[in-house]
Amino acid sequence: MKMGALLLAGGLMDHDDPLYEEGRDGARSLIDIHGKPMVQWVINALDASQSVRDLYIIGLPPEIDIETTKQVHFLPDAGGLFENIRAGVLRAAEDNPDQKRVLVVSSDIPALRPEMVDWLADQVGSDSQSLIFY
Q1: Is the model's pLDDT at 22 over the cut of 80?
Q2: What is the pLDDT of residue 76?
C-alpha cells in the first residue's frame, strides 16, 4: 500500500542548548550526522521505501537542500506536535483523497531503514481496525 509520509522536522533549540550550534539556525533536524543533516538520513529511508508515495515535510522551509526522488510538499510549522500532524494529514487527504492512511515520521531517527518503513506500512495497511500505530 502506497501512502504519504508526514515528516515532522520542526523544532528549534534554545540558544543555550549545547547542540544549538550544530543545527543550522538552531534547527534540531539539521544537526549534522556523518556529513548529512539528520533529516536527510530519514528522507533517504523514506525515499528508498516502496510504500511511500510522497513526502510532507513539516517545519522546514522549501529552500532547504534535501535530496529525494519523491514528490515533496513543504508545510509550515503549525505550532505544536498535534497541530502539525493534523495539518499534514489534512493536506495529504486533500492531495490524495483515495488514501486512507499516512505515516507520521520523526526527523530524529537517522538509523531508520527502508525495510522498517515498508514493514510498518504493511502492518498499517493490513489492519482496518486500529487508528494509530507507533
Answers
A1: no
A2: 94
- All three cell numbers of 96, joined, read 490524495
96 CB burial (10 A radius; 0-12, 13-18, 19+) = middle
Contact between 77 and 10 under an 8 Å Cβ cutoff? The reply is yes
pTM to 2 decimals? 0.91
Mean pLDDT score of the chain: 90
Burial class (CB in 10 A: 0-12, 13-18, 19+), 71: exposed
Q: Give the sheet arrangement for strand 71-75, strand by strand.
A: 71-75, 52-58, 3-8, 102-106
pLDDT at 9: 94
Run of H or E including 47: helix 38-48
> Residue 68's closest CA among 95, 51, 88, 49?
49
Of 67, 76, 12, the closest CA to residue 37 belongs to 67
- Residue count of the chain, please give it: 134
